[in-house]
Amino acid sequence: MATNSLFIRGLPPKCPLSEVEAIFSSCSGYIAARIREDRTKSFVAFCDFENPEAASRAMDARLGARIHDFPLSIDFAKGAQKRPREGEAPGSESPFSQRWEESRGQGGPHERPAVLEVAGVPVDASIREVSHIFRPFPGFICVYLRGTDLHLAEFRSAAQAGVAMQALENYLFDKHTPGSSRLNLRFA
Fold first, then answer.
1. What's the pLDDT tens digit per position in 142-158?
2. Residue 123 in 3-state DSSP?
3. Which DSSP string corresponds to 22-57?
4. What domains, with CATH codes, occur in the chain?
């Protein structure tokens, strides 16, 4: 379920709260951020927004964000309570929230994220451009850049990554540029 809170992982060790706030505080509907150490001693952050729509816009706007060369993975927080909007009964879902859930898809409760290696991306392409290719696929989380030319696309499950891989194999990156490269995908 889409919530008012975002879950951010991939933070550098001992990341100060001010670094997370600097990324998200300018987003519309931002309320607050907090950092916690998880069970594996990694630092994660939570950012709260006024409503799920504001959280979703912030997640899209900060896709590919980094802190000190650490790529951030941003998703809706699980288990966060949705605050009802004015005139909305507690526990009811907005049509936006329902559409979001249908389009995002969910991996199983214990399924690990799956990562695809994406080759054939032009060197001048931004992470944002590459992310736009994968965004329509259910389960898409984010795109990372490893080194200077290897992009990694993360999905919630191997099945969801497999669907994207099958649909995008040999995808022409820029149909308006003669000799544009085609994507080659495989599981990392």
1. 888 876 677 889 888 88
2. coil
3. HHHTTSTTEEEEEEEE-TTS-EEEEEEESSHHHHHH
4. 5-80+89-104 (3.30.70.330), 114-187 (3.30.70.330)
